[in-house]
């Protein structure tokens, strides 16, 4: 598909849309007016060589798997690289979809003055986020294994209360006198699953400690102390996930990026707000929702501070709605702390 439309001078190339893939990449170059200058199919091994020959220009990619790596590599070659969310590229695809059309759509989307871009992550940021992803994977595998043990033992009439802490009861029953009632063929299978569960418990506990106080996070002075002053539980987990605070114009933009803003279905001058959009960073949104859920649960049992925002919200709104609203409010506080580089100051209730 090496089909140059013309043979323009390289100085005319202003924007290149790059559709990345596993082995075969497609590039679409255009000038300042948006006129297509070339379309190229490039192999993975010759991609950097191709861009080294190109004049310094804007290179746009979809923010998908491997995009941050190629963005860093192209930046080293002197190009200005921007990542576009795939959802913002889709409206620019004309009719049928193929790699060449995708590259053209990326190129056209990058030239829009109102387009939003994704901040490029460094290798260190991606490595820090990988700690959280690995821990989540281990926790999911542990849950799956616990459910398997409980389900198989139910077939033999053995039950235990829900929760990981009660699995030890089932393990003692298997190894104890009650284990003699199990078929001989089943005992090795249960022992294998229990051994795997012990390994997962050990590894998940190790990565939990690292996600709380990893050396790369706690020694850096640019936010971990402020996070700890803002929240009491595991704030360093949040640090590798969001982009720089300067990326967002205001706190609401950061909350909307997390998917904590309500979905709008407004038309005809009538404002209609639905549930939260659940867009953006899922891990960070889940951590905020989980933490705020615990706060609201305790407040519902013991009562919130007199005159506080939380007390006023709980007096007139359902608990789940208050939880999401508190997560939204907390996200805005996080953004303000990072942007202003200040310590958290607890609000004083009116009349105090």
Automatic annotation (TrEMBL):
Protein name: Transposase
Any one biological process term the GO annotation gives: DNA transposition
NCBIfam families referenced in this protein's UniProt entry, alphabetically: transpos_IS110
Stretches for region Disordered: 208-227
Matching Pfam families: DEDD_Tnp_IS110, Transposase_20
Domain of life: Bacteria
Annotated GO MF terms: DNA binding; transposase activity
Protein source organism: Devosia psychrophila
InterPro entries for this protein: Transp_IS110-like_N (IPR002525), Transpos_IS110 (IPR047650), Transposase_20 (IPR003346)
Domain Transposase IS116/IS110/IS902 C-terminal residue range list: 246-300
Domain Transposase IS110-like N-terminal: 16-156
């Amino acid at each position: 598909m090496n089909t140059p439309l013309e043979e323009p001078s390289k100085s005319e190339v202003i924007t290149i849309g790059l559709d990345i893939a596993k082995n075969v990449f497609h590039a679409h170059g255009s000038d300042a007016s948006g006129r297509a200058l070339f379309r190229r199919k490039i192999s993975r091994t010759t991609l950097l060589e191709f861009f080294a020959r190109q004049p310094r220009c804007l290179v746009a990619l979809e923010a998908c798997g491997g995009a941050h790596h190629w963005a860093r590599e192209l930046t080293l070659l002197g190009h200005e690289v921007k990542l576009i969310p795939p959802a913002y590229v889709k409206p620019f695809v004309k009719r049928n979809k193929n790699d060449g059309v995708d590259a053209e759509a990326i190129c056209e989307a990058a030239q829009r003055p109102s387009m939003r871009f994704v901040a490029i992550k460094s290798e260190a940021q991606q490595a820090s986020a990988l700690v959280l992803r690995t821990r989540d994977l281990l926790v999911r595998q542990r849950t799956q294994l616990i459910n398997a043990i409980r389900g198989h033992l139910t077939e033999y009439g053995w039950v235990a209360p829900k929760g990981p802490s009660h699995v030890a009861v089932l393990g003692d029953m298997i190894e104890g006198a009650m284990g003699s009632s199990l078929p001989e063929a089943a005992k090795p299978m249960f022992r294998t699953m229990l051994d795997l569960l012990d390994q997962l418990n050990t590894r998940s506990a190790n990565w939990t400690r690292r996600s709380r106080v990893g050396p790369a996070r706690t020694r850096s002075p640019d936010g971990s102390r402020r996070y700890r002053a803002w929240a009491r539980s595991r704030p360093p987990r949040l640090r590798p996930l969001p982009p720089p605070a300067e990326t967002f114009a205001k706190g609401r933009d950061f909350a909307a990026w997390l998917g904590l803003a309500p979905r709008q279905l407004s038309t005809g001058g009538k404002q209609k707000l639905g549930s939260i959009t659940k867009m953006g960073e899922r891990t960070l949104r889940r951590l905020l929702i989980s933490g705020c859920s615990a706060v609201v649960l305790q407040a519902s049992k013991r009562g919130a501070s007199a005159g506080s925002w939380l007390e006023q919200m709980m007096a007139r709104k359902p608990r789940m709605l208050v939880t999401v609203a508190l997560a939204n409010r907390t996200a805005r506080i996080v953004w303000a702390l990072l942007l202003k580089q200040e310590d958290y100051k607890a609000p004083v209730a009116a009349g105090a």
